[in-house]
Protein 1
Amino acid sequence: MEPKIQVLPDTIANQIAAGEVIERPAAVLKELLENSLDAGATAIDIAFEQAGISSIVIQDNGCGMTPEDARLSLLRHATSKLKDIKDLEAILSFGFRGEAVPSIASVSRFSLKTRPADRDTGYELEVEGGTVRAQKPCGMPVGTIIAVRDLFYNVPARRKFLKSATTEANHLVNNVRIYALAQPRVAFELKVDGRQNLKLAAANNLLERIAELLGPDVAAQLIPIKGQDADDTVELQLSGFIGHPKFHRTNREGIYCFVNGRPIDSKLMQYALMEAYRGQLPEGRFPWAFLNLDIEPHAVDVNVHPAKREVRFRDEGQLRAQLMHVLSSTLQKALHQELLDSKVFVQAVAKPLTHAHPTASILPKIIPAAAFTPRPNSEPTSRSAISASQGMRPTGTPQIEAREIPQALQGHQLPWRFLTALPPRWLLFQTQSEGLMIVHAKAARERILYEEIMQAMEKRAVKSQMLLVPITFDLPASLKELWEQTQTLWAQFGYVIEPFGKQTYRVLETPPWLDPHSCVAMLETLLSDIHEKKLSAKSDLLWAECARRMAARPQAVSPLSYDTRTA
C-alpha cells in the first residue's frame, strides 16, 4: 500500500516557501537588495516595469559568484552566511536562510548573471518556474545581474491579491528609499518604466543622504543623537537623528528604525520614541526620526519573521527604558540649548528693571474703611436671606459690559449676545433664555473658517495672495509621481507653483487663509492625505479635508472680531 504522506517535489516546496517570503513585488526587490548589500556592493542599479509584475532587474558591483556557487544559490537552504548553529546567534548579514533566490525563481522567469573578480568571464543561468532551462558563460563586469520577469505567471491566484499598480509601485520605491537610508555609503539608481526616478551618489554620512533623498528642509530641522548605554543586561549604542517638535507629520512614515543596519518595523523603538516626545507634539502627530540601534548580535533574534521585518530583543523591558533615556535626554538637551541661544531669552535676562518701585504695580491698595453707623432697629440677617438679585459679588470683580452691536448687524435678531472674552481661550455669550453660553474661541474660529473655505472652493472662487518673496521647497522623490498627477489640484486650492530646478519648486501665490510660511507644510500634509487615504483629486472628501486642514492651521486662526464672534 502506497503511503499517504509524500515528500513534496522541490518546485512545489519552493512555491510554498515563496508564499511566506514573496507576497508582492516589493518583497522580491527587498530580498535581492539584501543579497547585493551582503555581497559588498557599493553601487546598485534597479529598474522595474508595470509595478514589478512585468520585470524587476537589479545590478550590483559586489563580489559576484563562481559558476558552482551560482548553481548552488538556486537550491533551498543553500547559503554562504551560516556554517554552524552558533553562527545564527551572531548573524550580522541581511540574509542567511538560503530561501529567497529559489523561492523567487520558482514563481517567475528568472535569469542570473554573475562574475567574481578573479574570473575573466561571467556565468549565466536561466530558470523558468524553478526549472533550469539554460546555463552558459557570458561577458559582463564584476558583480551580479538578476532579472525577474512575469512574476507569479504560474500562480495566477497570487496576482489577484495584489493591490493596484500604483500601490505596488509605491512599495517598490519605498523599499529602495529605506535601504538607501540604511546604507548611505552605497550609491543607488532607480528607473521606473524606463524613466529615472532616483539617483543617489554615495554619501559621506546619513545626514547627507537624508538631505539628498528627503530634501534639505528635512535635514535642517534634525537633532543628532548619539547615545551609548551599558549595563549587565544589554550593551547598545543609538545613533541617528530625531526631528524638532515644531516639525511633525500626520503619520509614522517619517520614522525609520534600523537594528545593526537592518531596516525593521519595531514597535518597541517607536514606543520609546513617542514616550520621549510625550507632551511635545499635538495629538495625532508624529516626529521625524532616523534611529540606528547597534546592539550585540546575541541580544537580538532576527529569525522570528519570515521576511525578517521584525526582530525580538533579549531583554525588551530594559532596552525600552534605555532607549527612552537616550532619546529623552537628547531631545531635552536640544530644546534647552535652543532656549539659551534664543535672542529673546538673552534680551529678557539682560534687560534692566525700569521701575523704581517694581512691587508698586502688583501690591493691592489698602483703602481705610468708612466709619460704620448701624441702621436704627437693624436686626441680624442670615445668609439665606440674601437674594442673588441684590447684586452681591466679590470685591474687585469687574462688571461684564455688553458690547454695542455693529451697524451691519443691527436689525438682525441674534439668538445670543456676546458679553466678554474669558482668557485665554473662551468667549461668553448670553442666550435668549437669559442663560450663559461658553464657546471655545479657537474651535469656533476654525468652524467659521472651514465654512468660508468650503464655500469658496465649491464656487471655484478661491483668491490667491501673491508673495513678495517666493518660497522654494524640495519635493521628496517618493512624492514626485503623485505631485505630477495632482498639478491642477493646487491651483484650485489657491496655490500658484512653478518648477525651479530638478526637484525644487517655487511657490508664487498661496491661499488667503494661510500664513505664507506654513504653505509648504500644508502641501506636504495634503499630499500625505491623498497618498494614505487614497483620495481622488475630484473627491468631495479631499476638498473637505483640505478645508479642515487649512482652518486648523495655527497661523489661520486670528483673534476673533465682533462680527466673527456673532456670526
Note: Residues 316-341 form the longest helix (26 residues).
Protein 2
Amino acid sequence: MANFSDLPPEIRDMIWPLVLRDNHPVVHIFGHYDEKKKGMAEGRSLMHGNLFSGILSEPSPDRYFASLDKDRKNENVSTYLIDGAMWNTCKESRLAIEKHYSQYEWPTDEFWYTRSDVRVWLGYPYHKVFQVPPTGYFEGGSPHYLTVFPRRDLFVFQPDKLNRVDWYFVGSRPTKGDNRPAFWRLQHIAIEYDPEWAEGFESLHLAISHLVEAAYELKDIQKL
C-alpha cells in the first residue's frame, strides 16, 4: 500500500478537502481559565498570538466524557481537534486548511462606497462577521492550533466552581483576548452541570443562584 506522501500531488489535493470538517455548527469543550493554574499542564489558557484568553482553557482530563468504547480511554471530543490535526500534520495540510479558512475574511472597506470623492458609511456588515473564525492555541509547548466560529458554534464550559466565573466577562469579551469589537463575543454557551454543586440544601441553593446570575449576565447571547 502506497504512503500518502507517495501519491501524485493532484490526488493529494483532492483528498485534503475531504478531511476538513463540515461547514455547520459544532461543539467545543473548554475549561474555565484559572490564574492559579497558569503555566501548568492542566488548565492551559487559550492563546491568540501572545494574548491570554482569560476565559477559555484546555479541558481537564478528569472532565472528559466517558467513551462508549470500553477499549478506548476517555478523551477530549471537541471538534476543534479535527482542525488541530490539519494545522499541525505537515506543510501540505496546513496550506489546505489555510486555503479553506481564507474564504472567511473580516470585512474591510466593503461597507464604504465613494460618491463624488466622498466616502459614505453604509453600516457594518454584521452578517459577514458571523462567518469569520479566529485561530488560536493552548499555551505551553509547541502551538497546537484550533479554529472556532464564536457566533455559530456551541461552547461547553466545564467550570470547577460556579462562583469563580465572571459571566459578564464571558459574555462580553472576545474569545481570545483579541481587540475585536464587542459583537465578537460567544453566542451559544452551555454550562456542564456538576452533581457536586448540589450536595446539601445550601450548596444546591447557591448553585441555582449562580446559574441564575449566569443567565442574567449572558443575556446578550443567543442561546444558553
Note: Residues 174-183 have pLDDT under 50 and may be disordered.
